[in-house]
């Protein structure tokens, strides 16, 4: 197919079979090429289109802007422990001073003192706070996280992700995205 759009254009919102996004942050998006492939493999239904079309010698097809999976994908209940997910849990703020700048992650109990790299022992920290705390315990440094470190649920990460809507939201997506955090307790 020959398209008159750039490679990175025309992202497609991917919904589960229940018409909820697979994830909010990062928002579940596919390239238009992957979406069209999934249509032809009969894995998705097209829910909404862009005004843009792609053409082949025998076919013209409007680009999908929203697709839904035909088979429900059960969301994971335990999110992966990743640097990004720690930042998302902590709402992209240093847990010592509140700054959103230059984030790293800090072991509350330093690894040199037996602290492990777990949800319950790692928080987002800006570089200046992380350097200031150094190899000390919170009591030694007199620096205590604003919230206790905890293993979040997928629901909690999705709720936090809704606080950070993406820069680009196509109008056809808005009926399927809920950025108001009061919708889900």
TrEMBL record:
Nuclease found in the keyword field: yes
Occurrences of domain HNH nuclease (ranges): 81-131
Gene Ontology terms, MF aspect: endonuclease activity; nucleic acid binding; zinc ion binding
UniProt cross-references to CDD domains, sorted A to Z: HNHc
SMART domains (alphabetical): HNHc
Pfam families in UniProt: HNH (PF01844)
InterPro entries: HNH (IPR002711), HNH_nuc (IPR003615), NA-targeting_endonuclease (IPR052892)
Organism: Bradyrhizobium japonicum
Taxonomic lineage from the root: Bacteria, Pseudomonadati, Pseudomonadota, Alphaproteobacteria, Hyphomicrobiales
Identification of the protein by name: 5-methylcytosine-specific restriction endonuclease McrA
Keyword DNA-binding: no
Keywords annotated in UniProt: Endonuclease, Hydrolase, Nuclease
